[in-house]
Structures are given as structure tokens and as C-alpha cells.
Amino acid sequence: MLQSKSFVKKTKQGRIQKVVREHYLRDDIYCGFGPCSTCAAAAERKLDAAAAAILVVDTNVVLHQIDLLENPAIEDVVLLSVVLDEVKNKNLAVFNRIKALCINKARRFYVFANEQHRDTYVKDMVGESSNDRNDRAIRVAARWYQNHLGESVKVLLITNDRDNKRKAIEEGLNAETVESYVRSLAQPGLLDLVVVPTSGDVTMEDAEDHRPSKKKVIYNEHKPMSEITSGLRCGIYHQGKLRVNRYNPFEAYVGSESIGDEIVIRGRSNMNRSFDGDIVAVELLPQDQWHESKSFIADDDEEEEEDVHLVPNSADDAPRNTSSTQSSVGSSAPSVSSRPVGRVVGIIKRNWNSYCGSLQPMPMPAGSGGVAHALFVSKDRRIPKIRIQTRQLENLVNKRIVVAVDSWDVLSRYPSGHYVRTIGDIGDKETETEVVLIENDINTRPFSTQVLACLPPLPWTLSPGDLANPNRQDLRHVRVFSVDPPGCRDIDDALHCTLLPNGNFEVGVHIADVTNFVHPGTPLDEEAAQRGTSVYLVGQRIDMLPKPLTEDVCSLRADVERLAFSVIWEMTPDADIISTRYTKSVIKSCAAMSYVEAQARMDDSRLVDPLTVDLRNLNSLAKIMRQRRCDRGALTLASAEVKFEIDSETHDPLDIGIYQIREANQMIEEFMLAANISVAEKILKHFPLCSLLRRHPSPTKEMLEPLLRTASSVGLNLDVSSSKALAESLDNAKNNDPYFNKLIRILATRCMTQAVYFCSGDLTFSEYYHYGLAASLYTHFTSPIRRYADVVVHRLLAAALEIAKLPPIFQDGPQLTGIADNLNYRHRNAQMASRASVELHTLIYFRTRPTDTEARIVKIKANGFIVFVPKFGIEGPIYLTPKGDKGGDWIVDEVHQRVTKPGTNISYAVLQTVRIHMEVVEPQPHRPKLQLTLI
């Protein structure tokens, strides 16, 4: 049966166009119920014959009750295609979660294509809204199921939409709200998962303090979207992402393109119920209210006071100051800042997630089994406390739990939410590691059977077809080797360096040919695209691809034949590239060395074997390439990369220190950078509109202001007019302190923007520039085992060489942009998870090891300063005043970056060396921290 669907859309040129599409209807779509005789020929039987009821769920149930649906107690659910489409349009994260339930063979969730079934398809009615049409389609499908299954099983429509429920009952359907259905299951614990709606059939219990003083309106109502849209157009409001200060949850920043600056939001009332990561509409306050606040270090156990305004403590959170007020902090007269100050008037897009933490200590209520109200405290200080109600309070005390936010009323000081699940005991290492993963949205689910079914049969060996492939060159005779971190099993890059008869060198970078096994559109490919990257924690790795691929089939291990994608140059002894070629290849690595082993070979003058000579030749070329790159303006930055020695049995840290970078590390890095640049040039030449590239935006002078202020205070003049000028300035930044130059480079690194992936068709060529590398073009090609970006680039390169067709997705600009956005999101989350894992293991290490050591002051505050501990790569605050004292006895000289106690000769300056004591304390329950104090 054929129907016509028509709709109008606006073209890029602004013209309105009517689109008519043919819509085919069928009558042979399976209902999914096991014993259904009418649909007996169907293969998939997901709905259980013994089910008490078949649940047809409304869109609002999926959107707002996903935590409940994921609970194993909820089964035999019908997901209509109209519901899934609506969920996908409204919340992609929830759509991915419900999709995972539908494809999980262990769960009884069945997708019914109601829009393709002749008996359940509904035509649009004149004057009917899309929401009303979808509600009608849901009721029609529920009625069809009821008639189709007859007396064999009860069909129940679950909806929290009061109007939809009323109409369903009037039409003779069984319909219930989520809460009433869950209550019928007689499992009280499930009620904790129920999201109480702000409207509908469920009356929300007030979890607030009932005293009259607490019932006043605390926040302003958010402006309606129509008013926000109009205000943005007129320049009255400004849109941007809200970022809460990591060290002070009562101050936030909104980057606004409309005014080209960041707007400071001070106090909970001005933040107006917005969360970190929300897209918000901001109204600027009158300029006479743009006062600078004193720069303090926040106490970890600071109470929530509306008049506490702190400046940020890290590059991740720092506003991009346009000027610096050079008045001493001791001055009582407020100064006017050039930074705009504003207040949130509306939420354009929410960023509510599930949060990890624990319940605030409280006395146990009398009796048991009833509903208790509690305050949830997230481990992330940027997240406000969340009110929840629970029937299992005794089981949640002293546990790490997950809580989701449901709503935030203008009458409530805190948002309301619901308990999702328990992670484990507070302080348990496995529990705290899982918290890190949840907080950073790291996918740790085992690979599904559908994904694993995409893997080649094991054990995998090279086939005659691989060798016979005219597009794959046999390089097994070439002396190829790899150099990686110690213990590395997922080896995705190797090199060779052959001296040619003409005195030049043939240098090859060989990268694991992952795309030979990961094909576009397969479950394996979709899973890798969603995960985006492998995640490296201390002593643990969460893989992007299944281990049979990462550690066996694709890994370029020694003495086994493997498939590779190679970039091969002819180079002069001066590292000038004569020619470049790209080919799929077959290699057989002769050695898999660690950086330490490779360095030892190069340093041992007694060794003159061919492999060691190859290493030395590569190192000589790399040094020239590195110098040339630096001469172009590439920055040599630094970071405090921490290395742990882990106990093999307990997995606890035994030792901690700074990771040592050797020449061998730099040698490998140089050739990987060169390969990435060569591939970027090749793919962009062939696909100027759909290449996946990586850029590093140039920092503004305002972003570099903290670095410039610090450098100036110690008599160092940094030229930041270009990357080349900055690189030369950093090279000349020296004094008697051997650590001084590295410290300056670390501070410079923190002022940089993040490098990001992008689709070439989205930007102009001038925006492709990679500031840190001083490269006009750059991409990622060399790590496809651990980064999905490299998988995408391998497909582009294969298509450019005409050895594979370009997948259809590359013709879809918005989808490519979405892939780049997800890669940036996943890459950033992986970085944050790695840092959090380091912080966790640092706490574990020092918990039983109080230590005295040296530190360098890196930031001056009114009540103390921030220090960096070179030996351990740790940064933290030193307080000069007692808790609660806002530094009245100390005066800060902003120009010379010095804090002085009046009437004494006691002062501290930035980059000064101090002796400190480090030990783990717990100022607040369940919030241990590493405390640093002066000796």
C-alpha cells in the first residue's frame, strides 16, 4: 500500500520548497510477541509469553524515565518507531541508551515499525500539532496491539501525559502513569528511579524545608524561547556555554561570540538554575556592577554563600581577561573590571547528566521503609547539591551512588533528582575508578555479540589474497621495527630507514591497517565511532576496539606478518623530502623495542648492527626535522606527565614521578608528525570539502595574559606576536634555576586552546592552521587502533589512492561535522578521565606517605598561593591565612606577583622555591584531598 507524505523545507538560498515522498505501508510486520499465531513466521520473538503485561511507552516516558527503563525489572516493552524518531530528535544521548536496550538480546524490548504498518499508520489532520499527531499514533498502535493479541496478554499504555492518558482511557485502552505502574510491581526500591514530573497525573511532593522563610521565590523564571530568540536577534541577550569555575561553584563564565568576550556570572541567583555545560541566554548587568572581586583560594569545605566570588584557578576555567587591574588586593575601593558581568535569563539547551557522589551525612529518620528526603553531594564541586527522596536510605549511606537531575523549581534552593544506582563503598579504589569513568561518560560496557561477530576468525594469518592484492606492496624484506612505551601490546606504528645507493634514505612509517578489518556501517565500526578513542587510566586501558584486534590481528608485533598502511619518503641526509608515496603494505617487524631499549642501543657506541645503525640514522634525520620545525615557529611545550609504578598484586601505586622524555621518544614523535602532515596534504588535495583534519587555534593575547604577567614579574619579556616569536622567547627563558625553563613552558601550555578535529568543508583554509606545530595542515593518521579519527583518515587516504570507494557518509556534511564533534567530546573526556585517575592514585599513594619536598609558586592569591611540585607533577594551594580569613593581613602586588605581610619582611613571589609538607586529609566527609602546607 502506498501513501504520500508531504512537507515543506527551507533551502540554503532561503526558498520554501514542498517535498513529496512516497510512503510504503505493509501488513506483514511482526508484533514481537512469542506465541502470536498470526505472526508465526517471524524470526524475532522478544516479548515473553508469560509477561504480566505488554508495555507500550509514550515518548515522555523514554525521554524522562530512561534510568527506570534500564532497570532489569522493566521488561516486555514495545518501542514504537514514532517514539524513537521523536526521542532521537529531542535527545540523542537518551536515544543511544534506548537503542542499546532494543538491540540487547538479554532484554525484552521490541521495536515496532508503526509508521510502516498499514493498520497503525496515521495521516496528519488539519490543525493538528505534531505532538498531538504522535500521541494519536501511539494510541492507535496500542489499540492495534490490544486487538491483535486479544485475551492472551494485557496491553498497557504507559504515559505521564495527562491528556494522552485521558484520551486513551476514553478510547477503551488500559493506561497508567509511570508511578502507578511501578507501584503495582510491589518493588519499593524501583520507586526511587521514578522521575516525578512537574505536571501531569503525579503530584510532586515538596522536598523543601516547609518553614515559611524557605518558601519564597529564590530564582527568576526563565524567559520563554520566543523571547530569548527575539532578544538574541536584537542583541539584548547573549548566547554561550556556561562553564562553572572548578574551584568556586558560585562563579561561572559564558563565552559569547556576539560580544567577543566572556561574561562573568557571579552567584547562584545570577546563574539562575543553570548547570555547567548548559547553553544559556545571558543579559548583561549595568556596567557599574562590573566590579573586580578579590582573588582568593577557595576552601574545599566552604559553605554556600552568595557573596563569595573567586577567580578561577586553572586554564580550563579561566576567563579570557581583556585587562588586568593593578590595584592591591588590600584596597577597599572596588575597581571596575573590563570583563562584562551578567545573569542567566534562560536555558537554551540543558546539559543535565548523571552525577556521582554520596549523600550528605544526616541523622537516620525514625522508623524504616518510608520515604526519606536527603541531599546528594557530587564529587564534582561545580554541581550543586541535589535533593532526592528514597525508600532505601540505610543502604545508601556511606556509598558512592549515581543521581540524575529531574527539575529545578524557582522555589527550591537545590535541584530535584532521583537515585539511579549504587556504585560501591566510598574509598574503595575500584569504586572510585568507576566514578571517574562515569563522571567523564566513558563507555565501559563489554563489546556486544554483534560487534564481536565482525572480527575475523582467530587465529588470523596472512592470506594468499592479501599478497596477491595489486594495491598492497610486499615489504616483508624491509627491516621494519617499532619503538613504544614499555609493555605496549597495541602497536600501531613502525618504521624503517634504508640507505639508498645515491646516498639518500628511504624512510617509511607503517601504520596498522585497521580499516582492513573495520568496515563502514558495521556494528564494529559504529561502536568504534561512538567510543571515539581508547582511554588510558593508571594501570588500566578501556579499548576503542576489541582486544583481538588491538593486541593481535592489527598490532605490529615483532616476527609476525601484518597488514599496514605506509607513508614512504625519499629523504636527503639533510632531511629534505625528495618524494612521497602511499601504499597499503605487508610488513614483518624485526623488533619491538621500548623507548629505553632504543635509547640504550643508540647510546652504546659498541653496537654497530644494522638495526642500531637504522635507529641512529633516523635519530639524525629527526633532529634536523625537529630543528626545522622549531625554526618555523613550532612550540616546544611541556607538561607534568606523571608516571606510577604499580604493585602487580594489589594494583596500588608503589612509586610516583615525572615521566622522562628521551631522544628516542622525540625521534618517533617527529616521524609521526611528518606522516600526519603528509597524509593531510594528500587527502585535502583530493577531498577539499570532506577531509577530517585537526587544527589548533592561535591563543589570543588575553589568553596568554597570565603567562605574560608571571614572566614580567621575574624580569622576563615574552614576545607572543607569533608562535615563532613565542618559541624563541621560551628558548631564551633561562636563569640559575635548572627547572625554570620547564616551568615557564608548563605555564605556557596551560594558556593554550585545545586542538580540535574538524571537517574541511566547515572552515576556510586560513582556519586550518595548527598553532602549536606551526603547520598549515595537520591530521591524525598514525594511531587507528586507539583513535577513530585515524580510521576515518585511513578511509579518505584509501579513496584518494583509488584503492577503495569513499563511504557515502562523506557526502553528508552535517553527519561529518557530528563525527568531528563527537571525537572532540570523547578526546576531551578521555583526557579528563586520565587526569582524574592520576589524582586518585596520587591520593592513594600519599595516604600512607606524608612527605616533605620542594615546590615552586605559580600563582599568587590574597590568602595564599598555588604551588607546583616538580618531583611529583602535583599542583595545589598553600593557605597563608586561617580558614575563613579572606587575606586581610596580606597585600598582593599584581605587577610583581608578590604577596606581602605588612610590617614584616615576610613575602612570597611567583616562581619562588618553597619547602612544603604533603599529606592526605578529609576536611569534609567523603572528600579526601592532598593538603599542602609550608614548612
TrEMBL record:
An annotated GO cellular component of this protein is: nucleus
InterPro entries attached here?
Answer: Dis3_CSD2 (IPR041505), NA-bd_OB-fold (IPR012340), PIN-like_dom_sf (IPR029060), PIN_dom (IPR002716), RNase_II/R (IPR001900), RNase_II/R_CS (IPR022966), RNR_Ribonuclease (IPR050180), Rrp44_CSD1 (IPR033771)
Cofactor or coenzyme needed: Mg(2+)
Domain RNB, chain residue ranges per copy: 472-803
Instruction: Output the Gene Ontology terms for molecular function.
Output: exonuclease activity; RNA binding
Q: In its UniProt record, which GO terms are filed under biological process?
A: rRNA processing
Q: Which UniProt keywords apply?
A: Exonuclease, Exosome, Hydrolase, Magnesium, Nuclease, Nucleus, RNA-binding, rRNA processing
PIN domain location: 53-166
> Which family does the entry's similarity section mention?
Belongs to the RNR ribonuclease family.
Q: Where is this region: Disordered?
A: 299-339
Under the heading PANTHER family, the entry gives: EXOSOME COMPLEX EXONUCLEASE RRP44, RIBONUCLEASE
Q: Tell me the leader sequence span.
A: none
Q: Locations of Low complexity compositional bias? A: 322-339
Q: Which PROSITE patterns match?
A: RIBONUCLEASE_II (PS01175)
Compartments it resides in: Nucleus
What the entry lists under Pfam families is as follows: OB_Dis3, PIN_4, RNB, Rrp44_CSD1, Rrp44_S1
What name has this protein been given in UniProt? Exosome complex exonuclease RRP44 homolog A
